[in-house]
Amino acid sequence: MTIPTDPDTGEFHRSANHFDARITADGRDGWPVEPGRYRLVVSRACPWASRGLIVRRLLGLEQALPVAVADPIQDEKSWRFTLDPGDRDPVLGIKYLAEAYFAAEPDYDGGISVPAVVDVPSGKLVTNDYPQITLDLSTEWTAHHREGAPELYPERLRDEIDEVNRGVHADVNAAVYEAGFAAKQAAYDDAYRRLFAKLDELSARLEKQRFLVGDTITEADIRLFTTLVRFDPVYHGHFKCNREKVAEMPVLWAYARDLYQTPGFGDTVDFDHIKRHYYQVHEQVNPTRIVPAGPDLSGWASPHGRESLGGRPFGDGTPPGPPPTAEEIDPR
Ligand SMILES: N[C@@H](CCC(=O)N[C@@H](CS)C(=O)NCC(=O)O)C(=O)O
Fold first, then answer.
1. Is the pTM of this model over 0.70?
2. Considering only the top CATH level, what class is 156-327?
3. From the centroid of its chain, how far is CA 119?
4. Smallest CA separation from ligand 1 atom 9, residue
5. What's phi and psi for 79, nearest 5 deg?
6. pLDDT mean across residues, the chain
7. Whose CA is nearest to atom 5 of ligand 1?
8. What confidence category does residue 13 fall into, taking pLDDT thresholds of 50, 70 and 90?
9. Active-site residue 177, yes or no?
10. How many angstroms does the Cα of residue 114 sit away from the middle of ligand 1?
């Protein structure tokens, strides 16, 4: 994979999501919510796709929106279904996610990214607009939520969630990539400074409250979690985000463990996919493609003590049950 950076500044800029149709209860974009009709294509390595995996589990949408898991290692044609028998997704019948992009737009020449939601009957990509995908699972798929599903994007907290998300996106979710992919020192320095300033701010916020917004788990926690869980295995070393590890920032470490140990979070995390993807795909950053053996991940299971802050993780709802057998992560 070639990492595109600005030749003048050395900055990495994330490309825009090209396919932004929405799957809605009223079907106004031509894509009505319909259980079993769509397939959520993810890589378990990818933080943007992992938001969808978590939200889907918390809301109990596993049957309504089945998932296809791509091989964590892309080849020159990008994401592929080499984990499946015959190297094909068993439902879509395709070998590469790119086939769904081209079915939707034959002369598309942009990136092939996950998460992607594909319409099974036509084989066409509907959306790769990751910030909207999870919000729509919360607000448009309500008819198919499980009993006891939490409210992850409650109306009364939306402004605050949106504001927290903007900061977390710019200075955490995207900043780790901007540090890791920077081609000039100043671009790296800027991303590193923004990242740790934001983590300090979030740590102060989370010292006295269990979750980022309100007293329950929301979309904001999911978006921060997907970066925190990748931090020590990948971003600290591979992306040079190394002022501290998350495990050395007591508040964030306890917060991350609290979420990790909550059903629907840790049971979607595949550290093997995460490590192999980053260290093997970004050859510009890691030319030997050697995947480090560490860090020791056993600490994720240790008690976090955050219950003493109060909070009601699922609000008036309940935690989800265990994941479907086919989606259990191999504990390597
Ligand atoms: N679609 C967004 C965000 C999703 C994203 O970056 N996904 C990564 C994996 S973590 C991906 O699929 N990259 C391949 C590509 O964009 O060509 C983007 O292109 O910036």
1. yes
2. mainly alpha
3. 21
4. 46
5. -65, 135
6. 96
7. 113
8. confident
9. yes
10. 6
